[in-house]
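Example (one chain per record):
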Amino acid sequence: MNIAILLKSAPCTDESDRALQAAADMLAQGHRVTLFLLQEAVRFCRPPVKRPGSRDIREITDPNLEIHVLVQDARLRGIEKPAISGAFTEGTYDSLVDFMESCDRVMGVL
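Predicted structure:
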């Protein structure tokens, strides 16, 4: 099953920790998971900031995981294209809509 998780919460928050745990659990069950980072969640593109008990997005490594970053939100927060490269794929509002239509399930973690 192809599952999308829309995440808008910043790193080191209870909401983002729950979303990352849910993604890891779904991947362990054999699902394909795509995280789409919006608003404050684009801060995951920056070097990790840890708090005890919180998860970092880079800790989840699985070939069935894709991470998309809404470029417009990243730029609004001073995160430019080069910082997004690597494990993250650039996304736009149009690609977000197309992406949501193509998934079997969509979860929103606000």
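Caption: The chain has a mean pLDDT of 83.
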